[in-house]
Design a protein that fits this description.
- With 278 residues, this protein is α+β, with helices and mostly antiparallel strands.
- 47% of the residues lie in helices and 18% in strands.
- The protein contains eleven helices and six strands.
- The chain is elongated.
Length: 278
Protein backbone atom coordinates (compact mmCIF):
# COMPACT_ATOMS: atom_id res chain seq x y z
CA UNK A 1 0.00 0.00 0.00
CA UNK A 2 1.25 3.45 -0.92
CA UNK A 3 2.25 5.76 1.90
CA UNK A 4 -0.40 8.42 2.49
CA UNK A 5 1.48 11.57 3.33
CA UNK A 6 0.12 14.57 5.18
CA UNK A 7 0.84 16.64 2.06
CA UNK A 8 -1.33 14.34 -0.08
CA UNK A 9 -4.18 14.54 2.42
CA UNK A 10 -3.85 18.32 2.57
CA UNK A 11 -3.89 18.59 -1.23
CA UNK A 12 -7.07 16.50 -1.46
CA UNK A 13 -8.61 18.53 1.36
CA UNK A 14 -7.92 21.76 -0.55
CA UNK A 15 -9.42 20.32 -3.74
CA UNK A 16 -12.62 18.95 -2.16
CA UNK A 17 -13.07 21.09 0.97
CA UNK A 18 -13.92 17.86 2.83
CA UNK A 19 -12.71 16.85 6.32
CA UNK A 20 -9.10 15.69 6.60
CA UNK A 21 -10.08 12.25 7.93
CA UNK A 22 -12.49 11.65 5.04
CA UNK A 23 -9.74 12.61 2.58
CA UNK A 24 -7.22 10.32 4.27
CA UNK A 25 -9.62 7.34 4.21
CA UNK A 26 -10.38 7.93 0.53
CA UNK A 27 -6.65 8.07 -0.32
CA UNK A 28 -6.03 4.89 1.63
CA UNK A 29 -8.85 3.12 -0.25
CA UNK A 30 -7.44 4.45 -3.54
CA UNK A 31 -3.88 3.39 -2.69
CA UNK A 32 -2.77 7.01 -2.90
CA UNK A 33 -4.34 7.75 -6.32
CA UNK A 34 -5.81 11.25 -6.03
CA UNK A 35 -8.31 10.94 -8.92
CA UNK A 36 -9.54 7.58 -7.67
CA UNK A 37 -9.88 9.04 -4.19
CA UNK A 38 -12.08 11.80 -5.57
CA UNK A 39 -14.31 9.17 -7.24
CA UNK A 40 -14.56 7.30 -3.95
CA UNK A 41 -15.63 10.50 -2.22
CA UNK A 42 -18.30 11.04 -4.88
CA UNK A 43 -19.56 7.52 -4.35
CA UNK A 44 -19.89 8.38 -0.66
CA UNK A 45 -21.95 11.42 -1.67
CA UNK A 46 -24.27 9.08 -3.60
CA UNK A 47 -24.74 6.99 -0.45
CA UNK A 48 -25.62 10.15 1.48
CA UNK A 49 -28.15 11.04 -1.20
CA UNK A 50 -29.76 7.60 -0.97
CA UNK A 51 -29.78 7.62 2.84
CA UNK A 52 -31.49 11.01 3.02
CA UNK A 53 -33.79 10.48 0.02
CA UNK A 54 -36.91 10.49 2.19
CA UNK A 55 -36.11 13.80 3.91
CA UNK A 56 -38.23 16.88 3.23
CA UNK A 57 -36.74 19.64 1.05
CA UNK A 58 -38.74 22.68 2.15
CA UNK A 59 -35.87 25.15 1.69
CA UNK A 60 -33.85 26.13 -1.37
CA UNK A 61 -33.24 28.92 -3.81
CA UNK A 62 -34.38 30.07 -7.24
CA UNK A 63 -31.84 31.56 -9.65
CA UNK A 64 -32.62 33.58 -12.78
CA UNK A 65 -30.26 34.80 -15.49
CA UNK A 66 -31.01 36.80 -18.65
CA UNK A 67 -28.92 37.45 -21.73
CA UNK A 68 -27.74 41.02 -22.23
CA UNK A 69 -30.09 41.59 -25.17
CA UNK A 70 -33.12 40.20 -23.34
CA UNK A 71 -33.63 37.45 -25.91
CA UNK A 72 -33.27 34.62 -23.39
CA UNK A 73 -33.98 34.12 -19.70
CA UNK A 74 -33.48 30.94 -17.68
CA UNK A 75 -34.77 29.93 -14.25
CA UNK A 76 -33.44 27.18 -12.00
CA UNK A 77 -34.71 25.76 -8.70
CA UNK A 78 -32.48 23.90 -6.24
CA UNK A 79 -34.12 22.60 -3.06
CA UNK A 80 -32.55 21.43 0.19
CA UNK A 81 -33.38 20.62 3.80
CA UNK A 82 -32.23 23.69 5.74
CA UNK A 83 -32.26 27.48 5.42
CA UNK A 84 -28.51 27.91 6.17
CA UNK A 85 -27.64 25.62 3.25
CA UNK A 86 -30.10 27.44 0.96
CA UNK A 87 -28.38 30.76 1.59
CA UNK A 88 -24.86 29.36 1.91
CA UNK A 89 -22.01 30.18 -0.44
CA UNK A 90 -21.73 26.65 -1.84
CA UNK A 91 -25.34 26.42 -3.01
CA UNK A 92 -25.38 30.01 -4.27
CA UNK A 93 -22.23 29.48 -6.33
CA UNK A 94 -23.46 26.14 -7.67
CA UNK A 95 -26.84 27.61 -8.66
CA UNK A 96 -25.19 30.56 -10.40
CA UNK A 97 -22.87 28.23 -12.35
CA UNK A 98 -25.83 26.08 -13.39
CA UNK A 99 -27.78 29.11 -14.59
CA UNK A 100 -24.80 30.34 -16.62
CA UNK A 101 -24.44 27.00 -18.37
CA UNK A 102 -28.19 26.75 -18.92
CA UNK A 103 -28.21 30.15 -20.60
CA UNK A 104 -25.15 29.27 -22.71
CA UNK A 105 -26.71 26.01 -23.93
CA UNK A 106 -30.20 26.75 -25.31
CA UNK A 107 -30.65 23.15 -26.46
CA UNK A 108 -30.77 21.95 -22.83
CA UNK A 109 -34.31 21.50 -21.52
CA UNK A 110 -34.05 18.93 -18.72
CA UNK A 111 -32.24 18.74 -15.39
CA UNK A 112 -30.46 15.58 -16.55
CA UNK A 113 -29.10 17.37 -19.63
CA UNK A 114 -27.99 20.30 -17.47
CA UNK A 115 -26.08 18.10 -15.02
CA UNK A 116 -24.27 16.41 -17.92
CA UNK A 117 -22.83 19.73 -19.14
CA UNK A 118 -19.16 20.58 -18.51
CA UNK A 119 -18.32 22.20 -15.21
CA UNK A 120 -17.41 25.88 -15.30
CA UNK A 121 -15.50 25.48 -12.06
CA UNK A 122 -13.20 22.51 -12.72
CA UNK A 123 -11.61 21.35 -15.98
CA UNK A 124 -12.56 17.86 -17.07
CA UNK A 125 -15.56 17.65 -14.75
CA UNK A 126 -19.29 17.85 -15.31
CA UNK A 127 -21.84 19.88 -13.40
CA UNK A 128 -22.95 16.60 -11.82
CA UNK A 129 -19.41 16.11 -10.49
CA UNK A 130 -19.61 19.55 -8.90
CA UNK A 131 -23.02 18.63 -7.50
CA UNK A 132 -21.74 15.42 -5.91
CA UNK A 133 -18.73 17.24 -4.46
CA UNK A 134 -21.07 19.81 -2.90
CA UNK A 135 -23.36 17.10 -1.57
CA UNK A 136 -20.42 15.27 0.02
CA UNK A 137 -19.33 18.46 1.72
CA UNK A 138 -22.74 19.62 2.95
CA UNK A 139 -24.17 16.16 3.70
CA UNK A 140 -27.87 16.88 3.43
CA UNK A 141 -30.43 16.20 0.74
CA UNK A 142 -30.09 18.65 -2.17
CA UNK A 143 -32.01 18.37 -5.44
CA UNK A 144 -31.82 20.32 -8.69
CA UNK A 145 -35.59 20.13 -8.99
CA UNK A 146 -36.53 21.98 -12.17
CA UNK A 147 -35.44 24.37 -14.90
CA UNK A 148 -37.28 26.66 -17.32
CA UNK A 149 -36.37 29.03 -20.12
CA UNK A 150 -38.09 31.60 -22.33
CA UNK A 151 -37.16 33.36 -25.56
CA UNK A 152 -38.10 36.60 -27.27
CA UNK A 153 -38.48 39.78 -25.23
CA UNK A 154 -38.13 38.16 -21.83
CA UNK A 155 -37.10 38.96 -18.30
CA UNK A 156 -37.23 37.66 -14.77
CA UNK A 157 -37.25 38.56 -11.12
CA UNK A 158 -36.09 36.78 -7.96
CA UNK A 159 -37.16 38.00 -4.55
CA UNK A 160 -34.30 39.01 -2.23
CA UNK A 161 -34.59 35.80 -0.18
CA UNK A 162 -34.25 33.64 -3.29
CA UNK A 163 -37.50 31.81 -2.55
CA UNK A 164 -39.79 33.33 -5.20
CA UNK A 165 -38.92 33.67 -8.87
CA UNK A 166 -40.77 34.70 -12.02
CA UNK A 167 -39.97 34.10 -15.67
CA UNK A 168 -41.91 36.42 -17.99
CA UNK A 169 -42.20 36.30 -21.78
CA UNK A 170 -43.64 38.94 -24.10
CA UNK A 171 -43.92 39.45 -27.85
CA UNK A 172 -42.70 42.52 -29.72
CA UNK A 173 -39.63 44.06 -31.26
CA UNK A 174 -38.02 45.74 -28.25
CA UNK A 175 -36.76 43.97 -25.13
CA UNK A 176 -37.15 46.71 -22.53
CA UNK A 177 -35.23 45.16 -19.63
CA UNK A 178 -36.61 47.49 -16.96
CA UNK A 179 -40.24 46.96 -18.00
CA UNK A 180 -39.88 43.19 -18.40
CA UNK A 181 -38.33 42.91 -14.95
CA UNK A 182 -41.02 45.23 -13.59
CA UNK A 183 -43.80 42.98 -14.90
CA UNK A 184 -42.01 39.93 -13.48
CA UNK A 185 -41.82 41.72 -10.12
CA UNK A 186 -45.54 42.53 -10.41
CA UNK A 187 -46.30 38.83 -10.97
CA UNK A 188 -44.22 37.85 -7.94
CA UNK A 189 -46.15 40.28 -5.74
CA UNK A 190 -49.71 40.13 -7.15
CA UNK A 191 -49.77 36.42 -8.04
CA UNK A 192 -51.97 36.53 -11.16
CA UNK A 193 -53.59 33.21 -12.11
CA UNK A 194 -53.33 33.48 -15.90
CA UNK A 195 -51.71 35.76 -18.48
CA UNK A 196 -54.87 36.78 -20.42
CA UNK A 197 -58.62 36.12 -20.58
CA UNK A 198 -58.16 33.43 -23.21
CA UNK A 199 -56.63 31.24 -20.51
CA UNK A 200 -59.84 31.24 -18.46
CA UNK A 201 -62.50 28.56 -18.89
CA UNK A 202 -64.68 29.79 -21.75
CA UNK A 203 -67.92 28.57 -20.14
CA UNK A 204 -67.20 30.59 -16.99
CA UNK A 205 -66.47 33.73 -19.04
CA UNK A 206 -69.63 33.30 -21.12
CA UNK A 207 -71.77 32.73 -18.05
CA UNK A 208 -70.53 35.97 -16.49
CA UNK A 209 -71.07 37.91 -19.74
CA UNK A 210 -74.63 36.55 -20.09
CA UNK A 211 -75.37 37.54 -16.49
CA UNK A 212 -74.09 41.07 -17.02
CA UNK A 213 -76.01 41.45 -20.30
CA UNK A 214 -79.26 40.36 -18.65
CA UNK A 215 -78.64 42.72 -15.75
CA UNK A 216 -77.90 45.64 -18.08
CA UNK A 217 -80.94 44.96 -20.28
CA UNK A 218 -83.19 45.14 -17.24
CA UNK A 219 -82.35 48.85 -17.04
CA UNK A 220 -83.92 49.46 -20.46
CA UNK A 221 -80.78 50.99 -21.97
CA UNK A 222 -80.17 50.62 -25.74
CA UNK A 223 -78.02 47.73 -27.01
CA UNK A 224 -75.02 49.87 -27.99
CA UNK A 225 -74.84 51.27 -24.46
CA UNK A 226 -75.35 47.82 -22.96
CA UNK A 227 -72.34 46.48 -24.89
CA UNK A 228 -70.11 49.23 -23.48
CA UNK A 229 -71.37 48.64 -19.95
CA UNK A 230 -70.80 44.90 -20.18
CA UNK A 231 -67.33 45.31 -21.68
CA UNK A 232 -66.34 47.58 -18.80
CA UNK A 233 -67.69 45.21 -16.18
CA UNK A 234 -65.98 42.25 -17.81
CA UNK A 235 -62.65 44.01 -17.31
CA UNK A 236 -63.43 44.13 -13.60
CA UNK A 237 -64.35 40.46 -13.70
CA UNK A 238 -61.07 39.58 -15.43
CA UNK A 239 -59.13 41.52 -12.82
CA UNK A 240 -60.95 39.65 -10.03
CA UNK A 241 -60.13 36.35 -11.76
CA UNK A 242 -56.42 37.18 -11.64
CA UNK A 243 -55.85 37.91 -15.32
CA UNK A 244 -52.42 39.55 -15.54
CA UNK A 245 -53.02 41.96 -18.44
CA UNK A 246 -56.05 43.56 -16.74
CA UNK A 247 -54.40 44.11 -13.36
CA UNK A 248 -53.25 47.62 -12.41
CA UNK A 249 -49.49 47.63 -12.95
CA UNK A 250 -47.77 47.49 -9.56
CA UNK A 251 -45.01 49.88 -10.63
CA UNK A 252 -47.53 52.49 -11.88
CA UNK A 253 -51.15 51.67 -11.03
CA UNK A 254 -52.48 54.47 -13.24
CA UNK A 255 -52.26 51.94 -16.09
CA UNK A 256 -52.85 48.23 -16.51
CA UNK A 257 -50.09 45.72 -17.20
CA UNK A 258 -51.35 45.50 -20.78
CA UNK A 259 -51.17 49.29 -21.22
CA UNK A 260 -47.68 49.47 -19.71
CA UNK A 261 -46.47 46.82 -22.16
CA UNK A 262 -48.26 48.40 -25.12
CA UNK A 263 -46.40 51.68 -24.55
CA UNK A 264 -43.22 49.78 -25.45
CA UNK A 265 -44.81 47.81 -28.29
CA UNK A 266 -45.06 44.62 -26.24
CA UNK A 267 -47.77 42.09 -25.40
CA UNK A 268 -47.76 39.51 -22.59
CA UNK A 269 -47.36 35.92 -23.77
CA UNK A 270 -46.68 33.73 -20.73
CA UNK A 271 -45.18 33.56 -17.26
CA UNK A 272 -43.96 31.01 -14.73
CA UNK A 273 -44.05 31.82 -11.02
CA UNK A 274 -42.17 29.50 -8.67
CA UNK A 275 -42.06 29.60 -4.89
CA UNK A 276 -39.92 27.35 -2.69
CA UNK A 277 -42.15 25.09 -0.61
CA UNK A 278 -45.20 25.29 -2.89
Amino acid sequence: MAEITAAAVKALREMTDLPMMACKKALQAADGDQEKAIEILREEAGKIQLKRSGNDTTEGRITILSSEDGSQTVMLEVVCESAPVASGEDLVNFSNACAAQLLANPEVNTVEELLALPSTQSSGKTINDDFMDMLNKIREKIVVSKIARSEGPTGGYVHHDGKTGVLFQASGETADAELLRGVAMHIAALKPAVVNEGCLESAVVQEERDRLVAEAKSTGKPDNIIDKIVDGRMKTFFTEQGVLVYQPYAVDDSKTVSQALAEKGLEAVSFSRWSIGD
